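Morning, I've got a small favour to ask if you have a moment. I owe you a coffee for this, so here goes:
>
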Amino acid sequence: MKLFAANAMMTYITCVVRFCFLGFMLITISGQYLEKSLIVMYSCGSLFEVYILCSGVQKLLDVSTSVPDRAFHEAWYDRATSTRQKYFILLTTTRKIECRVSVFGIVDLTLPSFMTILKQAYSACLLLLRIQ
């Protein structure tokens, strides 16, 4: 888990830096339509790749919280009393557990963090353009 969380953190930072410099290159290159079109194609591919990654993690998170809801509507109440109590305790405790892919919730690669990546890359690109 720690290894995957470190990988998620590095992916987050790498994406912010990549999109920042792609935007900076796209704005500062003047006149070369072939180079601009290649940068746009690479940017679209990178955006799609990060979106797929964030979407997959978001689906994992959604499924991890919806499993107890679906299990609650099953016929677990037809069992013996001790088994029902175990199922009920299990359902109530798993309802509170979410499948997170980050340690301490610092960076979660979900769909809201995809938008945060784009916002931070845009802000960093504006800062680079201001400095230039």
The two ends are 41 Å apart (CA to CA). Residues 2-131 form one domain. The chain has a mean pLDDT of 81.
